[in-house]
Structures are given as structure tokens and as C-alpha cells.
Amino acid sequence: MKVLPFTVTVPDDKCVFSEQIELPFFYQYLHRHEEWQITWVQKGEGILVAGNNMHSFRPGDIFLIGANLPHLFKSNPEYFAADSNKQIKACSLYFSPSGNLGALFGLPEMKLMNSFLKKNKHGFKIPSPYDKEISTRIQEVHKASGMNVVFNLLKFFNSLLAIQEEETEPLCPKSYSSYISDNEGARFSNIINYIMLNYNNQIALEDIAKTAYMTPHAFCRYFKKHTGYTFVSFLNEVRVNDACKNLIDGKKADCISGVAYKSGFSSITNFNRVFKSVMGQSPRAYMDAYYNTNKLNLISV
């Protein structure tokens, strides 16, 4: 699998491309494009590969992705099952400060926005307190026509500028180069695909190292260098993310021990320890907090 150059076709009557998608799963290939992208995940869970880093995503998450940054929204395995009735839903905007918007970004009034994009060249996950406002701005641009596209786009930029740098979670380190070779892209994609297809089973270090054509020792160094995680810590986060969904999913959530084994943990003791280290609370406390919040919301309605 290569890092595919992706051409975003902007309509003749707009300075920005927007799309609303509802599909069985996200686009499966690591790719990049010269446009900045902001994606609001409305339905779907999985892992966002962005440059040399990875982030779990779930409904409500919003990501600003820098120009030419290799990225991939990798849906969880259940979205690819033959009998799956799951779907993803997302709304995205694509804009290029040097393309159709070149004249706009050349104005003195856009100095702050130019500086903002330069400072956050790889993008970041939108902090949760801003989710509602940013998702509203994305929809306004998507639904607009005529001069309202520009008007709503400026409102969107203004909302981005209100986000404080210390509140953001960068998608990857500033030192990361957006260039990645085809061979490196193929290796990285193979690793992610293997993890996402097998995380609910026991994964031997030797087996995943083989997907990268490396010795186990070399693989561990490579994985830490390119993701910032040890392989075990990343695998644990993927499993805990899956466990969180299963603990509260459906009309009747699975029991804690069932969730532990379904998510790939070999013992309930290990599951409880890892879950608390990742989430800051026990699985039982996580479930109680979720259901208590839902009860309060119902009462307020």
C-alpha cells in the first residue's frame, strides 16, 4: 500500500470543498493532499493514522489535518465484517490557502490565520469544549452557497483562532516531515492493518514484527520512534477504546469480564489494571459515570 496523492476537486462555484459521507467504513488507504482538512466524525470508531502518530476516534471527535500530511481513518474490524450493518458518517471541509483562497489569505486581515496554520502545520484534535461550535461552523460552510460560503468560512476560521494552543493535542510532532516514501507508507499501513484486525486476539511480537519485515527488537525501536508509543502501550489503548464501547453499547451492556476477554485481554486482573491506567478510573466506575450522566440528561430534558 502506497501513500496515495489524493486530488480534491473543488467545485467551480465554491472556494472550498465540503462533503458529507455515510458509508460502511472510511476510505482505506493512507493518502495525502495539498489541502487542509477538517473532519467531524458523526458515526464510527477506529484509529486515525496521522503522520507518525495514531489517535483513537469516536463519534463527536473533530480533527484538523495539515496540508500534505499522510493520514488514514482506519475503521474498527467490525465495520468490515460480511454481515455488518454498521456505517460511518462524517462531514469534512477541504481548503487550500495557496489555491482558490490565495487572494483571501493574501489580505492583511488574514495575518493571524496564516500564522495559526504555520504554527499548527500538522493539525490537531479539536479540544472537546470547542466541539459544538466547530461542528456548527463546519455544517454552515457545507450547507452554504454563493457569498455565504465565504462568510461562513471566515466565521469558521475565527472559531479556530479562538482555540488556545495549550489546549490542543497535535496530531504528530512538529519535527515530523510530511514526506514519506511509498515503502515506508506500505510498512506503516501493514502494521496498522494487522493491529486493527487482530487486537482482540493475542498478538505475538514476532508475528507483528514480520509484517514490517523486521526483527522484534528492531520493530520495537521503529514503532516507538514513529508513533511515540511502545507497541504494548499502543495495543492496550486500542483494546481499552474497544472495551469502552462494549461496556456501554446496546440495550444491555456486556459484563466486565466478557468485555475484557472480547477486547483481547488475557485476564480480568490485567484488564482492570490497564483500563485504570488509560482511563483514570476502573471499568465499573466508567460504566457508573456514563449511566449516571445519561440519567441526569434525561431528567433535564
Give descriptors for this structure.
single chain; 301 residues; alpha+beta; Jelly Rolls; Arc Repressor Mutant, subunit A; three-stranded antiparallel beta sheet; 11 strands; 44% helix; 17% strand; transcription; sequence-specific DNA binding; DNA-binding transcription factor activity; AraC-bd; Homeodomain-like_sf
Strand order of the largest sheet: 2-9-4-7-10-11
CATH class identity of the largest domain: Mainly Beta
What's the average pLDDT? 86
The number of helical runs is 11
Percent of residues in helices comes to 40-55%
What is the end-to-end distance?
A: 49 Å
Q: Tell me the major beta sheet.
A: 6 strands, antiparallel
Briefly note the CATH topology name of the largest domain: Jelly Rolls
Report the principal-axis shape. Answer: globular
What are the low-pLDDT stretches, counting only 5+ consecutive residues below 50?
Answer: 296-301
Q: Tell how many strands the DSSP assignment holds.
A: 11
Structural class, from helix and strand content?
A: alpha+beta
- Please tell me the CATH architecture of the largest domain by its name: Sandwich
| Count of folded domains | 2
Radius of gyration: 20 Å
Element string (H = helix, E = strand) = EEEEEEEEEHHEHHEHHHHHHH
- Per CATH, the superfamily of the largest domain is Regulatory protein AraC
